[in-house]
C-alpha cells in the first residue's frame, strides 16, 4: 500500500527527468517522461496490485510534472520582477 514516505519518489522523478533534459531531451517531453517514470515506479517499486500501482504511479508522475511547472513558473516570475526593477 502507498505510504506517505513514498512521496519522496516525486523529487527522484524530477531528478531523472532533469538528467534526460541535460542529455538532450526537449523540455516539451518532460511531463510525458515524468508520467511514464511515475507509472514505472508505481508498478515496480510499490508493493501493490497492478491497478493500484498504475493509479498511484500516475499520481506521482503528474505531481512531479506539476511541481516542475510550478517551480519553473516561479523562477520566471522572479526573473521578470528583477528585470522590471
- Low-confidence runs (pLDDT<50, min 5 residues)? none
Biggest sheet descriptor: none
Termini separation comes to 50 Å
Proportion of strand residues: under 5%
Count the helices. How many? 3
**Into which percent range does the helicity of residues fall?**
over 70%
Instruction: Encode the helix/strand succession as letters.
Output: HHH
Structural class: mainly alpha
Radius of gyration: 15 Å
Which geometry do the CA atoms define? elongated
Number of strands: 0
Mean pLDDT: 84
Describe this structure as you would to a colleague.
The chain is mainly α. The chain is 75% helix and 0% strand. The chain is built from 3 helices and no strands. The chain has helices spanning 9-22, 30-44, 50-84. The protein starts with 8 loop residues before the first helix and ends with a helix.
Helices and strands, with pairings:
Elements: H1 9-22, H2 30-44, H3 50-84
Helix pairs in contact: 1-2, 1-3, 2-3
Amino acid at each position: 500500500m502507498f505510504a506517505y514516505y513514498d512521496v519522496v519518489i516525486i523529487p527522484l522523478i524530477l531528478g531523472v527527468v532533469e538528467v534526460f533534459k541535460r542529455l538532450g531531451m526537449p523540455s516539451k517531453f518532460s511531463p510525458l517522461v515524468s508520467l511514464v517514470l511515475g507509472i514505472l515506479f508505481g508498478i515496480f517499486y510499490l508493493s501493490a496490485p497492478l491497478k493500484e500501482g498504475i493509479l498511484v504511479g500516475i499520481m506521482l508522475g503528474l505531481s512531479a510534472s506539476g511541481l516542475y511547472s510550478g517551480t519553473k513558473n516561479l523562477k520566471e516570475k522572479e526573473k521578470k520582477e528583477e528585470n522590471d526593477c
